[in-house]
Design brief:
Number of helices: 9
CATH superfamily: NAD(P)-binding Rossmann-like Domain
Largest sheet: 7 strands, parallel
Helix content: 40-55%
Shape: globular
CATH architecture: 3-Layer(aba) Sandwich
């Protein structure tokens, strides 16, 4: 039987735009009180008002997942508003394009603080509440790139792999407790994420992200998250073909490396042609 989500509060980080915002709307439509968390309060207030105007329950709370205190306060305030939370969706994160050789320690620390440690902080803050109520669901927005690394996106892939691994470990550790743990693996999604990636990346870089032409709307990811909340499963994929490709790349790493190397060479050739002066 599917789980009845009505009245079960969920905390969503990175909820001011993209996948987080779409998931907030989808969860509200499923009857879940939604706690929208991010750093941009004005955007959160707009989403809060939209959900309430549509008959749902929502509250906007500012949170920087890179800070221990913020994550603890977020869970405490969420419980104060709607009672013991049922689920958290660790969705806050960012990426940048840069070779590992040229990535500064500061860049690497920052992306791990937000993408990986932000997930750990949220899990740690929420778990005592979920254990006390005897059920619940922890979800992390990982990526299809959690399975293999794309050149010049090694730092991002590493954080997503780390999210995937801790979620899988906790899924096994919490088996039988009534608490589910899931990792979500979207492909390229039409969100502000890539605008932020462009801002953080070297404009003279390889632009491998331009090679990823296939895109999905954030609503597809949101619907998959709600489906997982209703019928929990360990991994959530929004593209069967991508999941198959990542599986094959794991089984045949040399072939995957050759294909990625070929894609990189083609991109370099295209950039060289684009940079040539017109005759």
């Amino acid at each position: 039987m599917p789980i009845d989500l009505r009245g079960k509060p969920i905390v969503i980080t990175g909820a001011s735009s993209g996948i987080g915002l779409a998931t907030a709307f989808a969860c509200a439509q499923a009857g879940m009180p939604v706690i929208l968390a991010a750093r941009r309060l004005d955007r959160l207030r707009e989403a809060e008002a939209t959900i309430i105007n549509q008959g749902g329950k929502a509250v906007a709370l500012v949170c920087d997942v890179a800070k221990d205190y913020d994550c603890t306060r977020l869970i405490n305030e969420s419980c104060a508003r709607f009672g013991p939370i049922y689920a958290v969706f660790a969705n806050a994160g960012f990426g940048f394009e840069c070779g590992i050789e040229h990535s500064t320690p500061e860049q690497l620390r920052e992306i791990f603080e937000v993408n990986f440690w932000g997930t750990v902080r949220l899990y740690h803050a929420a778990l005592p509440v979920l254990r006390a109520r005897g059920d619940g669901h922890l979800l992390a927005c990982s990526s299809c790139l959690s399975k293999i690394a794309m050149p010049y996106f090694g730092a991002y892939s590493a954080t997503k792999a780390a999210q995937d691994h801790i979620s899988r470990a906790m899924r096994l550790e919490l088996a039988g407790s009534g608490i589910y743990v899931s990792s979500v693996h979207p492909i390229r999604t039409r969100t502000e994420f890539f605008d932020e990636t462009d801002r953080r990346s070297d404009p003279t870089g390889q632009n491998m992200r331009k090679r990823l032409a296939i895109m999905q709307p954030p609503e597809r990811v949101a619907d998959a998250v709600v489906a997982c909340l209703r019928r929990p499963r360990g991994e959530v994929w929004t593209s069967t073909s991508m999941r198959t490709a990542m599986g094959l790349a794991t089984i045949f790493p040399r072939t995957a490396d050759r294909l990625l190397s070929l894609a990189l060479k083609r991109r370099l050739m295209r950039r060289a042609e684009e940079s040539r002066p017109a005759p």
